[in-house]
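Example record used in the benchmark description.
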Amino acid sequence: VQLQASGGGLVQTGGSLRLSCVASGITFSRYHMAWFRQTPGKEREFAAEINWSDSSATYADSVKGRFTISRDNAKNTVFLQMNSLKPEDTAVYYCAARGYTTRAYNNWGQGTLVTVSS
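Model output (structure tokens):
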């Protein structure tokens, strides 16, 4: 399984970024996909998840209303549109995958760094 994340970068407060994650080695349409994030000295935290069957989404309270997760099953790609970015959104963002019968995320990408300047 390979998850290749991209799209990170430096943006000012209030700006937007769109992260992408291309998956290979899995039947993408049968996998829940998610984005997590991590800052130095802190544990990795959940940001958003998209369901494999109906593309319903779940968000952490900290990003709800600002971030949108979506997927393109034809391109084996999951996206995270991030708007109204804040300095506290600065983190390494990881995409993750779990099979539809699996309870925990067990496939991880390499991460992409998002830096929001104040």
